Amino acid sequence: MSRRCRDRLRRGKLRTMRRPLGLLAVLAAVSIAPGTRADAAHAPSAAASAPVGHVPGAAALEGRIIAPCCWNQTIDIHGSEVSNALRREIRARLAAGESAEAIERSLVERYGERVIAVPRGSRLGSTGVLLALGMGVAGVGAILLLRRWRDRSQRPSNTAAPEAPEAPANPALDARLDAELAALDRE
Predict the structure, then answer these.
(1) How confident is the model over 40-49, as pLDDT tens digits?
(2) How far is residue 158 from each of residues 64, 152, 155, 161, 162, measured CA to CA in Å?
């Protein structure tokens, strides 16, 4: 802690800041905590999540299918029995040689179009591309701006105050000014 902070702490000036900061930290912890709890009914079980083992293409397909029990998460991260059964089915069918598109079509026939996380023809894919391009352009702009600021700060400054041009001497004005200053000194 710096000396200045210790001095302020002794005088009681930082105590007023501790309360709002402590309250803010508690509020942040409380607001984050409900999102981190796992629902016991939807907790993933290791035995049910990968009964067949690694199957090429399974992870991608599981990431495109929404859990039909609650329609909140994709089945690759959802831990309900329905999701576990769908993961086992997808992996078994892929291991048997069935295509991912055929499996996806059969799941759509069974559960409806809602089971697809990002339906075909959705603008979400193009939105993601546009967002990525926008972020790239913003990043390039930020880099150029930082370089410009750095170059300006490293350049020697020739912007000293310009000197006033030397005015030609006028003896009459000089004599008048001296007289006025002498009159002020006498007052």
Answers:
(1) 445 544 444 4
(2) 61, 11, 9, 9, 10
> In this structure, what DSSP letter does residue 187 have?
-
- The enclosing H or E element of 16 equals helix 15-36
Q: Which CATH superfamily is domain 40-115 in?
A: Cytochrome C biogenesis protein (1.10.8.640)
Do residues 58 and 90 make contact, with C-beta atoms less than 8 angstroms apart?
Answer: yes
| Residues ≥6 apart with Cβ < 8 Å to 8 | 14
pLDDT tens per residue, range 90-117: 889 888 888 888 888 888 888 888 888 8
Q: How far apart are CA 129 and CA 132, in angstroms?
A: 5
Q: Which residue has the tokens 């009159």?
A: 183
Alpha-carbon separation of residue 19 from 3, 9, 26 (angstroms): 21, 13, 11
d(CA 61, CA 92): 13
